[in-house]
Amino acid sequence: MVKAVFTTKVNPTYDDLPMFRYHFPRTYLNQVTAAVGDWIVYYEPRRSSGAAGSRGGRQAYFSIARVKSVQVDEKIIGHYYAFVEDYLDFDEPVPFKVGDHYFESALRREDGETNKGAFGRAVRSLPDQEFDAILRVGFAPVLSPARPDFVVPGFADEQELFQRPIIERVTKRPFRDAAFAAVVKTAYADTCAVTGLRLINGGGRAEVQAAHIKPVASQGPDTVRNGIALSGTVHWMFDRGLISIGEDASILTADRFIPQEARGILSLARSLRLPERPEWRPHPQFLKHHREHVFKGRS
Questions:
Q1: Which of 16, 75, 91, 196 has a CB 3.0–4.6 Å from the CB of 141, allowing a cystine?
Q2: Is 4-138 a CATH 3.10.590.10 domain?
Q3: CA dist 187 to 9, 56, 229, 273, Å?
């Protein structure tokens, strides 16, 4: 098994859905197959799509996942799918280099410039120590006690933080919950996407909560695209299917189930307040699941 970097655009040229699958040509079959059972880091290039001259990509590593299997694409000859699990967004995108330091040493030429040939490969092997270094930066907000609402219970002890392999720490449920909350709150600027309220208590803690759209119990992934920032009461209503989100981002309500005391909260809510960046917005697949399997107002 070998760790790797998988490159995918904001608007992928291939049939990528990073939290579930990665689509690739035969060129990378050996490298992807070698990564089965191991971890990969997703990288977002400068080009945001396959269109010539497209820009807007962050040129940064943005998430991790574990490769579960590789299967042939039955529709396109010479193409394959890598199916992944345990997807988790970084709380901070990690630039491919900081100053003169390249997180992937293979991307740096002897003269210190970028090795464009290596950079042009969509799948690249990644040594364990370089993988660990990327994770330490990407999850720094959760590993650090700088924000009280991102502190992970049970992970503050120095022995825990610095002696256990980082991948063992970040795959535990308490850490995943904290990382998910951090990236969702950042995407929504600590603001409830339904009410527009942004409340910060005296201890600097954001009162808004991170809600999974497709529940974890239903194999909903820990990705910002499966999350919405909601105030406590709205979160409770969303989880119980009293409200949902339409295809056009409209707020749907199951009026006969909503307590009278809670209706005032929704009186001005018409549509979901979406994150600025498209890659942070809820994926239609997860919203559809909530409408069809959780929402009580469906006919």
A1: 91
A2: yes
A3: 19, 17, 8, 11
